[in-house]
Design a protein that fits this description.
single chain; alpha+beta; Peptidoglycan synthesis regulatory factor (PBP3), Domain 2
Length: about 400
């Protein structure tokens, strides 16, 4: 082989490695430098006032974790590659269908996957709970495949479970092909769908505990959470990072201030520092411009309604759930409650039966709604009731004579 041929082959090998690396890299396997608090603190961004946040992320959203109200979005409903933020869905499906102490046998497919990994050994047995931590903290792709094969029987079957769950949640512009999120043209979601999936997942205590953990250990080795916001942003308590060549730097963050939790999503950022800065901008905008207004408490009586032919003349009405809405001050002045309930009801009435609805409307848009239910059982006046009334009236008249 001549010298020219050797050079060509060497160049081809290098290019091939670069291309393959770009295809499989996930999260911090190709870190672009450390992030310090100064990187976030020193950036000057508009966080309050009427000006909307300025973010360089290709797509972004910030959402109230309770009501699901979108407070800001940029290309929030556009399909994107989502890298390892995929693992949010992987984790919640595994948590709902498995137990921490279950034994998971690692396949060759899991052990040989590229990108970020925790170096699982083919044929070795691990506990499901430990794999979940390794997947969500260190973003182990090998752990994701091992979990998927254990829960679903195969990666493909588990992806179907993920898609069914997405549809159930209402994330209808999402399609999962893998449990790890390495680039695939048929694997995508949107900032809005990712926020909805996260909103659902955060209702699970085990999920919350995992994604809020800064550091742990796996097989005797320390593992640190790839989510930089846990250390940089006050109140940050989740959720998941992501990175591939196609998706760019991605981050889903949850943060809680004064009992109010919001979710931010940034996709396709150029560096870790940029995704941290963009996430901070969105969170600052939410916490700096909105306050939560509590309108209804589940089960608390809010009014009464008259009953026709009932043993009681009226019955109490209550909401079937809490209603809290994040609003700007001027929005709170304009929001209206629209009740749809009848003027009277016909007995009998069963406790908990749906009587009507209430909607909270801002500028023609429904921000929240609740069913209105009866607080008590109300029996109907029947033949025996009227007979008893006649008998008692007759007895009283006889006694008076």
């Amino acid at each position: 082989m001549n010298k020219t041929a050797k050079v060509v082959i060497t160049v081809m090998i290098i290019l091939s490695n670069l291309i393959c690396t770009n295809m499989v890299i996930a999260d911090d396997t190709n870190d672009d430098g450390p992030i310090t608090k100064d990187i976030i603190k020193n950036e000057s961004w508009e966080a309050t006032g009427t000006q909307l946040p300025r973010v360089s992320a290709g797509a972004a959203i910030v959402m109230d974790a309770k009501s699901g109200r979108v407070l800001y979005e940029k290309n929030g409903y556009k399909r994107n590659s989502i890298a390892s933020t995929t693992k949010i869905m992987t984790a919640i499906v595994a948590i709902e269908n498995g137990k921490d102490d279950e034994d998971v046998i690692v396949s060759k497919r899991a052990a040989s996957i590229g990108g970020s990994r925790v170096n699982l050994k083919e044929g070795k047995i691990y506990k499901l709970g430990n794999l979940l931590n390794a997947m969500m903290l260190r973003s182990g792709n090998d752990a994701a495949i091992a979990i998927a094969e254990h829960i679903g029987g195969s990666v493909e079957a588990f992806a179907e479970m993920m898609n069914r769950k997405a549809a159930q949640i209402g994330a209808t512009n999402t399609n999962f092909v893998t449990p790890h999120g390495l680039d695939d043209p048929q694997h995508y979601s949107t900032p809005f769908d990712l926020a909805m999936i996260t909103q659902y997942a955060l209702k699970n205590e085990k999920f919350c505990k995992i994604v809020s953990t800064k550091s742990s250990s796996f097989e005797g080795n320390p593992i640190n959470n790839t989510n930089e916001m846990l250390s940089l942003y006050p109140g940050a308590d989740g959720v998941k990072t992501g990175y591939t060549g196609q998706a760019g730097r991605c981050l889903v963050t949850s943060a809680t201030h004064n009992g109010w939790k919001v979710i931010s999503v940034v996709l396709n950022c150029s560096t870790r520092s940029v995704r941290a800065q963009n996430s901070k901008i969105l969170l600052d905008y939410a916490f700096g411009n909105y306050s939560t207004y509590d309108y209804l408490k589940q089960g608390q009586q809010i009014s009464e309604i008259g009953i026709h032919k009932g043993l009681n003349n009226s019955v109490g009405l209550c909401s079937d759930k809490d209603v809290s809405i994040p609003l700007k001050k001027d929005e709170a002045d304009r929001i209206k409650a629209e009740y749809d309930i009848p003027k009277t009801l016909e007995a009998p009435i069963q406790k908990g039966s749906r009587i009507g609805t209430v909607k909270y409307v801002l500028d023609g848009k429904v921000l929240a709604y609740a069913d209105i239910k009866a607080t008590d059982n109300i029996k109907r006046k029947d033949f025996y009731y009227y007979f008893d009334r006649i008998f008692k009236t007759w007895a009283r008249l006889v006694h008076e004579r």
